[in-house]
Design a protein that fits this description.
The complex is a heterodimer of chains A (about 375) and B (about 300). Chain A has about 375 residues and is an alpha/beta fold. Chain A contains 18 helices and eight strands. Chain A has an eight-stranded mixed sheet, sandwiched between helices. In chain A, helix 14 links the parallel strand 6 and strand 7. By secondary structure, chain B is an alpha/beta fold. Chain B has twelve helices and eight strands. Chain B has an eight-stranded mixed sheet, sandwiched between helices. In chain B, helix 9 links the parallel strand 6 and strand 7. The chains are: A alpha/beta (about 375), B alpha/beta (about 300). The interface between A and B is large, with 81 and 76 residues.
Chain lengths: ~375, ~300
């Protein structure tokens, strides 16, 4: 029996699931949330993925930026009595969250409208690398501040680097701040007071490369945002502080082979460097054997004796040998990973023959995550 | 249909489906077909080096096999190259590149990193080449693009950039790149999927997002379904095995039989998803086999390259 996620998350108010894309992070986050809710906790899971994976996996038609509660009747239908537990889910709308922040920090409606209408703002709020990551943390912070839940589970965005989101607030503040830029760009009409010939050249080159209008928009953007930078920065610092605060646990989610398993070991090191607590490593989709006899001529003979034709018997043995190769590959990889993650418990979730796409499916992962397998 | 009659092939799809592996297998297949191909890694961290068991590839165009090259793009290097190409005086380009203010501005300009990345991809496909000191030309450029959301964002960057910048050399370049990307004779998007519910949903949505825009639509030329288990057993044999299940017991025959039954269940689940995918996408669907090897290397890439075409 392995350790239970419930024990690992004891006392935690935030649980961040990290790992590379396609390893089942969203499913794992939702399964942990469902399992914790089934044990009487009030849990919200925050997902960021634009593919609406969580909506898929919870059978919810649409998740808004606000949390919605998963119908308790679904728990009953799955044969679970959650007691006082509740499961809530929210899918991040990054643009809407960004707009809310601008509204909150704008000193007056005029400034707000100028920013919301600015073309640079429209670009970054939708597409700037890292803005999605920051908005996820902003949303998490907001939910945490409200204090409505015992536990918040963050399914981190599928970014190039799984830990990008940790640094997102700092990078975004750096961008929105633009203090050093404002020294050089002035809105048209004020005239451009240029500090030196070098700067002048840089602007003329950048203007030529990127188009003069772009600079105009940037200038307008930084001028409009200057009044809300301090509030924004202060907030971002608190947001950034949230994940390094007491009560936050990290879970690394990975697959049993290839790149994801390498990434898991890398993430473990990175979390350690940052002094962030690693609750557990969860290896998804591990091929498990029945521990029975290895494939070989003996099996083929036994199949023949059971009345199976020689061609079919050989194909059955081949199928067994292929599966066995995967079982061995996964076992070897997991073994290596155990050696690289130190103290943290490692949980194995087996490859299921059915996909997880509803609450009952999520709860079928329960025994592996909550130490009852 | 020849996938290599396009100059630019973008490989995208859900995270973890094997985009990089498929991109390199496409590269090998193109090389085998007598083309000069280059794989341009954007999202991944030097996976090509792993696949071909060699040192990291980096920003230099590196030969991996006969007819196959690769490079891994780095936006910062690209801005540098861009300056060298567009600045009349080389010293000036160097000065700018080292200027902190310029670096800062370049980093702060929304979409600039994506824009220079697309610029590089486009440049690789030019005959003759435009970048200084590059003379090798390629018949096909295969881009190992980021996953779905970021991948679409990257493909749309030239359009967005053109709309924001409007004038200037970058806006002009953005226009040229956009024309190439949306020209189905020049550019095709390849989606990599798996026969799993969420990957199928995402692939269907991705094709819609790429082809559905009234303006600036892209052509999706095929959907590769990765990791399909072999169909070793006929329907009759499956019934035979099920009937046998309880009678063989726990011995060697039982273990073998339960492995085969498990495989049959997975094949059935995959077939159902494969049917949904075929019904949901317009582009032809091509099946790729599951690889049982513990590590993907050259031999496995060759198997995929064979299956791709």
């Amino acid at each position: 029996m392995s350790e239970s996620i419930e024990t690992i998350l004891e006392g935690a108010s935030i649980c961040a699931c990290v790992g590379s894309g396609g390893v089942g992070k969203t499913t794992t986050s939702a399964a942990i949330a469902a399992g914790m809710a089934a044990r009487g906790h009030k849990v919200a899971v925050l997902t960021i993925d634009p593919a609406k994976r969580l909506a898929d996996s919870l059978g919810l038609e649409e998740l808004g930026n606000a949390e919605s509660q998963v119908d308790p009747a679904l728990f009953e239908a799955a044969g679970v009595d959650p007691g006082g537990g509740e499961l809530w889910a929210s899918m991040l709308d990054s643009k809407a969250t960004f707009d809310e922040i601008i509204e909150r920090h704008s000193p007056d409606p005029e400034t707000r409208d100028r920013i919301l209408a600015n073309r640079i703002y429209k670009q970054i709020s939708g597409a700037l690398a890292g803005s999605q990551e920051y908005m996820a943390m902003e949303k998490l912070y907001e939910m945490h501040e409200r204090g409505d839940y015992d536990l918040l589970i963050l399914d981190t965005p599928p970014s190039r680097n799984a830990l990008d989101f940790l640094d997102a607030p700092r990078r975004l503040v750096q961008f929105v701040d633009g203090r050093s830029l404002r020294m050089f760009i002035r809105p048209a009409g004020f005239g451009a007071r240029i500090a030196s010939r070098g700067t002048s050249m840089i602007f003329s080159v950048l203007g030529r490369l990127t188009g003069v209008d772009l600079l105009g928009d940037l200038s307008e953007f930084f001028t409009a945002t200057s009044s809300l930078v301090d509030g924004f920065r202060e907030r971002a610092e608190r947001v950034q502080g949230l994940l390094s605060a007491e009560g936050t646990e990290f879970l690394i989610v990975c697959g049993p082979a290839g790149e994801p398993i390498e990434e898991a070991a890398f993430l473990r090191g990175k979390l350690g460097e940052l002094g962030l607590p690693l609750g557990a490593v969860i290896v998804n989709r591990v091929h498990g054997g029945d521990g029975g006899a290895p494939p070989g001529p003996e099996a083929t003979r036994a199949l023949r004796n059971a009345g199976i034709g020689v061609g079919l018997a050989k194909r059955i043995t081949a199928s067994h040998a292929d599966l066995q190769a995967l079982v061995e590959r996964d076992a070897e990889n997991v073994e290596k990973l155990v050696g690289r993650i130190g103290e943290a418990p490692l949980l194995r979730v087996p490859e299921m023959s059915d996909e997880v796409h509803d609450l009952a499916g999520l709860l079928s992962l329960d025994p592996y995550l909550f130490g009852e397998a | 249909m020849d996938p290599f009659d396009k100059r630019l092939l973008f490989v995208t799809g859900k995270g973890g489906v094997g985009k990089t592996t498929v991109a390199y297998a496409l590269g090998l297949a193109a090389a085998v077909a007598g083309k000069r191909a280059i794989v341009c890694e954007i999202a991944s961290q030097e996976r090509g080096a792993d696949l071909f068991a060699r040192k990291p590839i980096g920003f230099e165009e590196t030969r991996l096999a006969k007819g196959l090259w690769a490079l891994s793009v780095d936006p910062d290097e690209l801005v540098h190259e861009y300056l060298q190409t567009h600045m009349p005086v080389r010293a000036m380009a160097e000065l700018l590149h080292r200027s902190r203010l310029f670096t800062y501005l370049a980093a702060a300009t929304p979409g600039l990193a994506e824009m220079v990345t697309m610029g590089k991809v486009w440049e690789l496909a030019q005959t003759p080449r435009k970048a200084p000191g590059r003379s090798r030309t390629y018949d096909v450029v295969i881009v190992d693009a980021p996953a779905t959301g970021h991948g679409v964002g990257l493909l749309r960057t030239p359009r967005t950039f053109r709309e924001i910048a409007r004038v200037g050399p970058l806006a002009n370049q953005a226009r040229r790149i956009e024309e190439t990307l949306t020209d189905p004779r020049m550019t095709a998007i390849t989606i990599v999927a798996r026969a799993e519910e969420m990957a199928v949903n995402e692939s269907i949505g991705l094709e819609e997002a790429l082809t559905g825009a009234p303006e600036g639509a892209f052509a999706v030329d095929r959907v590769y379904v990765n990791g399909l288990y072999p169909r070793r057993f006929t329907d009759d044999e499956r019934s035979e095995l099920e009937a046998l299940g309880s009678t063989v017991g726990d011995g060697p025959a039982g273990s073998a039989l339960s492995a085969a039954t498990e495989e049959i269940a997975r094949v059935a689940a995959q077939s159902a998803q494969l049917d949904r995918l075929r019904a949901g996408v317009e582009a032809p669907v091509v099946e790729l086999p599951f690889l049982f090897a513990p590590r993907i290397g050259r031999a496995e890439l060759d198997i995929l390259a064979e299956a791709l075409t």
